[in-house]
Design goal:
The protein has 162 residues and is mainly β. It is 12% helix and 42% strand. The strands form two sheets. Strands 2, 4, 6, 7, 9 and 10 form a six-stranded mixed β-sheet that branches. A hairpin with a 4-residue loop joins strand 9 and strand 10. The longest helix has 15 residues. The termini are far apart.
Length: 162
Amino acid sequence: MFKILLLAALVPAVLLQNADNIDYEDWDVVAVRPCSGARPLPPIVRFRNCPEVPCLLPRGDDAKVALDFTALQDATTLRSQVTATALGITAPYELPADRAAACNWLVQSRCPITAGEDLVHHLSMPITAIYPLVSVAIEMDLVDETGQSHACYVLDARVVAA
């Protein structure tokens, strides 16, 4: 009986801890801007339900994005660092810890990663109901344990009512 309960608890956790089952191929390829500081721009960024920028972010939903990138160096960990700029104010966008751990969200891959490896990262960002209805520039940076950026882009978006 204990084994069944343990299995019932672990299976959903395993499914939620990676992005292998994400079907992002039909998501819209979006135009993004480079980040400052010559950080590498990913060649392809896909956003769910964004036929044109600015992407609309309905409150109470999750913004879902997938990006292709090539690892610049060997790394044992990756984290997603998100910054939002709205109404002239720039602030960190604190992702839940499980979503900030980017190694959990590599599609068909896991950390450690190897220099030159082609990868896809999936990110799901919660858009809570308390967010104001404003335009926002979202900077997303994939950073390893040494602080090396492996992919960074800026996406123009707008928070809208659900």
